[in-house]
Design goal:
It contains five helices and four strands. It is of the alpha+beta class.
Length: 171
């Protein structure tokens, strides 16, 4: 005869010795967190960025987009040979680059504006003639001329036409 108290100890030993079922792994043992040293509880000083100046590097032949004195977009080229010349120009600002002068130009649309005014006056004259005309063939003829003048006026009375036909002159 077996004692019941012996069975419980045998059952406990059997439970410890049993292999995991169906490839199930046993849970990992829980580890206690490491205790933090007392000095880590104190606040750390803030970290700041630090400016460290860099010497100007040697030009490597690079393009970049920038703006000229008037704010217009301009493509710059960092040419190694030109960098030496630029340093010389900075040392002697009274010298001009290659003796060339700066050019300034003016665009005039006066001629185009006069042409548009002539077309408007011609349209008004044709409209008056059309109102006074009584003959049917004359009315058709005047209407055709009026359509031609209005189409030409529509084609020329805009900014694109003015820009493409303006006269450019140097100062």
């Amino acid at each position: 005869m077996n004692l019941i108290s012996g069975l419980t100890s045998l059952a406990a030993q059997a439970a410890k010795q049993t292999a995991p079922l169906g490839g199930v792994q046993t849970p990992p043992e829980v580890q206690q967190p490491a205790t933090e040293p007392q000095n880590e509880l104190q606040p750390k000083p803030p970290v700041y960025d630090e400016y460290s100046p860099v010497e100007k590097s040697e030009p490597i032949g690079q393009y970049w987009l920038g703006q000229d004195e008037e704010g217009q977009p301009k493509v710059y080229f960092d040419e190694p040979k030109a960098a030496e010349e630029n340093e010389d120009k900075a040392a002697a600002p009274e010298k001009k680059a290659g003796g060339k002068k700066e050019e300034k130009c003016i665009g005039s649309t006066d001629k185009v504006d006069r042409e548009i005014e002539r077309l408007k006056k011609r349209r008004e004259a044709l409209e008056q003639q059309l109102a006074a005309a009584t003959d049917e063939s004359e009315i058709k003829n005047l209407q055709n001329k009026l359509k031609q003048v209005e189409s030409e006026l529509a084609r020329k009375d805009n900014d694109t036409y003015r820009r493409s036909h303006m006269q450019i002159s140097e100062l």
